[in-house]
Design brief:
The chain is α+β, with helices and mostly antiparallel strands and 103 residues long. The chain is built from three helices and seven strands. The radius of gyration is 13 Å and the shape is globular.
Length: 103
């Protein structure tokens, strides 16, 4: 088991946690796996693969924790599911970035 460092920009906090190396390298096959990650960090990772950028409209949402899997080729499915697991509303006007707003 290895270690992972996460920087939370909104609070300038650094978190060090233990992580399974297989989990940390799953991105190589287009699968992003997260365990108790701040939503801000998750969105940053997903944005590396998403055709359209995702923005968090309410800074407090960036600290919500997320555990789950995101398939890089299916980020729209993840966004729809996210509304069921976190207090977010996905706003997509098709003109700009997808926004995550507090529900």
């Amino acid at each position: 088991i290895g270690e992972q460092v996460t920087f939370i920009e909104s609070s300038s906090t650094i978190l060090i946690s233990r992580i399974d190396p297989a989990l940390a390298t799953s991105w190589r096959s287009g699968v992003l796996k997260f365990v108790d990650e701040p939503l801000g960090s998750v969105v940053s990772s997903v944005n590396r693969y998403s055709a359209r950028p995702i923005q968090i409209a309410d800074p407090a949402l960036a600290n919500e924790t997320f555990t789950g899997t995101v398939h890089a080729a299916r980020t729209e499915e993840w966004l729809r599911a996210l509304e069921y697991v976190l207090p977010v509303e996905v706003v997509d006007d098709r003109l700009g970035p997808v926004r995550l707003e507090r529900r």
